[in-house]
Amino acid sequence: MYEPTEHKRNKLFTYWIEIVGTCNLRCPTCPTGNFLDSEFTLGRNPTGFMELSQYKQILEKIKADDVSDRIEVHLYTWGEPLMHPKVVEFVALAKEMGFYCGLSSNLNLDKNLKEVIKVGPDFLRVSLSGYYQENYKVTHKRGDIRVVKSNMYRLRHMLDKYGGDTEVQVLYHVYKHNAGDDLLMMLKLCEELNFTLEPVWAFYMPLEKTLDYLKGVVSDADRKTIDMLAMDPHRVTEAAIPFRDQDCHLRKTQMTLNIDGSVQLCCATFDQANAVASSFVETSHDDLQSLRYSHATCGDCMDKGQHVYFTYGAGQKLDEMGEESLKAAGSKFIFKQMSEPHLTLREGDGSENDAIALPRAPKKKRDRGLRRLKNKLLGR
Q1: Sequential DSSP letters for 73-134
Q2: How many whole angstroms separate alpha carbon 212 and alpha carbon 204?
Q3: Are 312 and 337 spatial neighbours (Cβ–Cβ below 8 Å)?
């Protein structure tokens, strides 16, 4: 297993800050939807809303730690940030302090959406898994894709009305069953709205469940979920094992905070047993990294190459395995997440046709150097 000699300064460091400890949906590949109370080792991490006062202390410590010239703050892990009644203030404070700020939403509600767009987060991800309700409701349980599409139109209107330059990315989770007409129609919608479409292979999460599955422990409900994936975690593990000695970017360049300010091992874990410190504010960055690098779950994960899987380190193999499944399922498209072309229409004989260009909205230029200089001049 990879052992760092020291914690070096990274070019980019990302903080995932959970400001809402729950979600309005119960997606089967997300722990908010698939983790039962009986499956926790020490109990569920706290639910509810993060306090704004605590958040301010966290941002102040992030600035004081100064671990990178490029800091990104994303206000989510497993929760739905638009549910927070003060989400606008959370975004505004991050931007005031000079941080790049991102959000992710299932967009099944429009609560706070207009106010959020007006304050201007740098990035907004819309997470979905279909265009038609029949497919969408299976993998985004409790969700209504008609509401999502309506809110996507509202989002475009708000961006145009308020002059927002928020980068909108539609993250389309690819399963065996939804890489056909659903994906095609979502592509057309993103073209119309000038949103970036980013198809990705769907994962079975969180890490705790994946490790159990590799040991042969899986419920009937989770087995049905895994059967929908384009690749089985056992096969993925075989592909990832040869690369397991490389460091994990989830711990090297990222840190995850729960709503109570505690620090999670990484953004792939969910059980309270995998919280490494009770307080981010009261624990130094070096100590947090040492706690994470020495954690038993981290070692178990890396021994099985799961850190490679979750960070797409075995990308070409993932694409090959995924394509096998999509072809067997009669998918209309050949999808490659890790190589170009990403999307190709499949011929009747299974061969590739002309590549299809994915919608790509203009990216907002990230002038981190200028932003950092500005903050120094302003004493932030």
Answers
A1: EE--SSS-GGGSTTHHHHHHHHHHTT-EEEEEE--S--TTHHHHHHH--SEEEEEES-SSHH
A2: 12
A3: yes
- Asked if residue 309 lies in contact with residue 237, where contact means CB atoms within 8 angstroms, the answer is yes
What is the C-alpha to C-alpha distance for residues 172 and 130, in angstroms, rounded to an integer? 7
Q: How many domains is the chain built from? A: 1
pLDDT digits (tens, 9 = 90+) for 52-83: 999 999 999 999 999 999 999 999 999 999 99
Instruction: Flag whether 9 is in a domain.
Output: no
In terms of Cβ atoms closer than 10 Å to its own Cβ (0-12, 13-18, 19+), residue 121 is buried
Structure token digits, residue 160: 């145009």
Note the pTM of the prediction, 2 decimals.
Answer: 0.91
Residues 6+ apart with CB under 8 A from 216: none
**60: in domain:** yes
Mutual orientation of helices 315-328 and 233-240 as an angle, nearest 10°?
A: 150
Who's near 320: CB < 8 A, 6+ residues apart?
none
